[in-house]
Amino acid sequence: MQRFSETSPKLGITMLATCNTLSPSQLAVEVESRGFDSLWLPEHSHIPASRATPFPGAAPGREELPDVYWHLNDQLVALSMAAAVTENLILGTAVTLVAQHDPIWLAKQLATLDFHSQGRLEVGVGFGWNREEYEAHGHEFSDRYTRTRDNVGIMRALWSQDEASFVGERESLEPSWSWPKPSRNIPLLLGGGSGPRLLSHLFEWGDGWMPIRSPKGSFVDDVVGVHRLAEEAGRDPASISITVMNAPQSVDELVELGELGVDRVVFTIWPQEPDAVLSELDRFTSIADSFLSRT
Fold this sequence. Notes:
The protein is α/β, with parallel strands linked by helices. The chain has helices at residues 24-33, 75-84, 103-116, 131-135, 144-160, 196-205, 219-232, 251-259, 274-292; strands spanning 10-15, 38-41, 90-96, 121-125, 164-167, 172-176, 188-191, 208-210, 241-245, 264-269. The protein has one domain (10-292): Luciferase-like domain (TIM Barrel, Alpha-Beta Barrel). The protein has an eight-stranded parallel beta barrel with strand order 1-2-3-4-7-8-9-10, surrounded by six helices. It has a two-stranded antiparallel ribbon with strand order 5-6. α1 crosses α2 (75-84). The chain is globular. The two termini are 18 Å apart.
């Protein structure tokens, strides 16, 4: 049972869940049973062995791309398994590399998952960082922002129109029929930082912002800056939800995020060994209990 008040941010879990850890269904049950509101799973179709693109998450002791990146389960198959064994858990993608997909197929997959889970899907949209992975799908890496916007336009047309059509800069859809329609307008959250190119897309067509919190610097400045830029772009900041990934484990910092109006914070599980995953979930549950006692 979820246990968050209307005024406190919701708390979720994300994990690089692979074929070597808990099954998606078991992971989802464990997350929901502890009262977390959501489970967020990432995706990579594959990792080309050339490794030409530098790892953006490199840090001391983690200079090389961890092998979990090429052991990931399929994102939507895993979330479908999670949906089948849970009742209220939000099923999140963090993120879906929309430009690497055929948008017509992806629209149907997402709509089917949302329809049969009774409106529990939220989609994090990523533009991608791995050039060779992206180009293996037959596209130019420089086109990924434009292709993402066009693919989103096609998907939203298919989700909302009986006879759907869309004309984009790179991708278009002739008048077409496709069901099921999702149970609601599936929220699209743009994952990434606060650079001008990403924010321009967020203000144009995004429902939410999904930044990865850095342990360095003040996140307050980022939120204030995004709100200011949204207003300058003619977008009501209140219309943009904020889901913060890589949630801090300090209760004081969680409280600060709540005071900023953040809608959800998401803890990251790194271990893969099943007992260690369960231990991390228990630890995050304790942090959540301490946080909720303050709100």
